[in-house]
Design a protein that fits this description.
The structure holds two protein chains of two kinds. Chain A is mostly beta strands. Chain A is built from no helices and eleven strands. In chain A, the strands form two sheets. In chain A, strands 2, 4, 5, 6, 9, 10 and 11 form a seven-stranded mixed β-sheet that branches. Chain A has a four-stranded antiparallel β-sheet with strand order 1-3-8-7, with no helix packed on it. The N and C termini of chain A lie far apart (36 Å). Chain B is mainly beta. In chain B, the strands form two sheets. In chain B, strands 1-9-8-3-4 form a five-stranded mixed β-sheet, with no helix packed on it. In chain B, strands 2-7-6-5 form a four-stranded antiparallel β-sheet, with no helix packed on it. In chain B, a hairpin with a 4-residue loop joins strand 5 and strand 6. Chain B is globular and about 40 Å long. In chain B, 34% of the residues are buried. Classes of the chains: A mainly beta, B mainly beta. At the A-B interface, strand 5, strand 9 and strand 10 of A face strand 4 of B.
Chain lengths: 114, 111
């Protein structure tokens, strides 16, 4: 099992450019998440999905879009990148046992917007 | 909204027990307490979670007070590889979760 993988690992963008970050999981998890982490800060939830074809907004959704067309993949899009979106992006997937949840995280994508 | 309060940093001597406190005075009756850690910019790693009772696994022990307003994560024999930021999270889920990570406690294990 590869667990949760993220592509790319690192990317530099110019202001106004667009890109898509890919998250893939091979654990058959229903739930998937996108977080961002700024220096010295904890993780903040951008968007999440509770199943294929569903998405919902998290704490900081502005400037991002997501799609969950396949259960194993969760895409995060930046339509017009801004320097404020320079951050490390983490994807996670999880399953529920009753009301208990364990999230498994990917290694992160480091994004620099110039 | 911050649901937990943790000290920003702690030190622990290698081989000794590391006791990381967390205050969650507004916890609801059905919310679980979760602990994750993040080692040097890697993705966070699940450690342990509990509801009311104390829990132990191969990584750590979790002690939750009887009133559930605080908890302590115990790493029984800290090693240098335990140097990380530790996050205490309280949450309840029945349709997927929103974890609030906060800024955590930066634990440094000293040789």
């Amino acid at each position: 099992n590869a667990g949760v993988t993220q592509t790319p690992k690192f990317r530099v963008l110019k202001t106004g450019q667009s890109m898509t970050l890919l998250c893939a999981q091979d654990m058959n998890h229903e739930y998937m998440y996108w977080y961002r982490q700024d220096p010295g800060m904890g993780l903040r939830l951008i968007h999440y999905s509770v199943g294929e074809g569903t998405t919902a907004k998290g704490e900081v959704p502005d400037g991002y879009n997501v799609s969950r067309l396949k259960k194993q993949n969760f895409l995060l899009g930046l339509e017009s990148a801004a320097p404020s979106q320079t951050s490390v992006y983490f994807c996670a997937s999880s399953y529920l046992t009753g009301a208990q949840e364990t999230q498994y995280f990917g290694p992160g994508t480091r994004l620099l917007v110039l | 909204d911050a649901k937990t309060t943790q000290p920003p940093s702690m030190d622990c001597a290698e081989g000794r027990a590391a006791n990381l406190p967390c205050n969650h005075s507004t916890i609801s009756g059905n919310e679980y307490v979760y602990w994750y850690r993040q080692i040097h910019s890697q993705g966070p790693q699940y450690i342990i979670h509990g509801l009311k009772n104390n829990e132990t696994n191969e990584m750590a022990s979790l002690i939750i007070t009887e009133d559930r307003k605080s908890s302590t994560l115990i790493l029984p024999h800290a090693t240098l590889r335990d140097t990380a930021v530790y996050y205490c999270i309280v949450s309840y889920s029945n349709t997927g979760n929103q974890f609030y990570f906060g800024t955590g406690t930066s634990l440094t294990v000293i040789p």
